[in-house]
Amino acid sequence: MIALIQRVSEARVDVDARCSGQINSGLLALIGVQPEDGPAQVERLLQKLLAYRVFSDAQGRMNLSLSDTGGGLLLVPQFTLAADTRAGLRPSFSTAAPPELGRQRFNELLALARTRHPRVEAGEFGAHMRVSLVNDGPVTFWLQV
């Protein structure tokens, strides 16, 4: 599984004309699923999302995690993260999970996150979404498990 995470002061995802998920301070995580991803990858990715130290402590160092700060987590499915872009000028999606597997793994991640963190919001798998955010820093990391 892949996550592109951004530390945000606010983030929102809209589907059609309605808000699907919205957070204030926290992490926006764009999630890509690959064919070999299973429950172990879901578990490991969630552990990293909650424990990755990207928030500033009193000395201004990135020593605090999402679990430490209690900030929001906005999960947004994005199959394009798993694209193969090494050759040519058009991405290949042969390295992305088939839609049903991608949906299943994303939903597993979302359900598990909601049992372990108090503030979890999400986009909708397969929908055309409009994601807006204010990147705090900017701080952006690519996580792959």
Strand content: 35-45%
Classified by CATH, the class is Alpha Beta
**Based on the structure given, which CATH architecture is correct?**
3-Layer(bba) Sandwich
**How many H/I helices?**
3
Distance between the termini: 6 Å
Rg over C-alpha atoms, rounded to the nearest angstrom: 15 Å
Mean pLDDT: 97
For the biggest sheet, the summary is: 6 strands, mixed
Record field, number of beta strands: 8
Q: Could you say how many structural domains there are in total?
A: 1
Which residue ranges are poorly predicted, with pLDDT under 50 across at least 5 consecutive positions? none
* Helix share bin: 10-25%
CATH topology: D-tyrosyl-trna(Tyr) Deacylase, Chain: A
Q: CATH superfamily, please?
A: D-tyrosyl-tRNA(Tyr) deacylase
The general outline is: globular
Structural class: alpha/beta
The SSE order reads EEEHEEHEHEE
What does this structure look like?
- This protein has 3 helices and 8 strands.
- The chain has helices at 39-51, 66-69, 99-116; strands at 2-15, 18-23, 26-32, 55-56, 62-64, 72-77, 120-122, 129-144.
- 24% of the residues lie in helices and 39% in strands.
- With 145 residues, it is α/β, with parallel strands linked by helices.
- Strands 1, 2, 3, 6, 7 and 8 form a 6-stranded mixed sheet that branches. It has a two-stranded antiparallel sheet with strand order 4-5.
- It has a single domain (2-144), classed as D-tyrosyl-trna(Tyr) Deacylase, Chain: A, CATH 3.50.80.
- The mean pLDDT is 97.
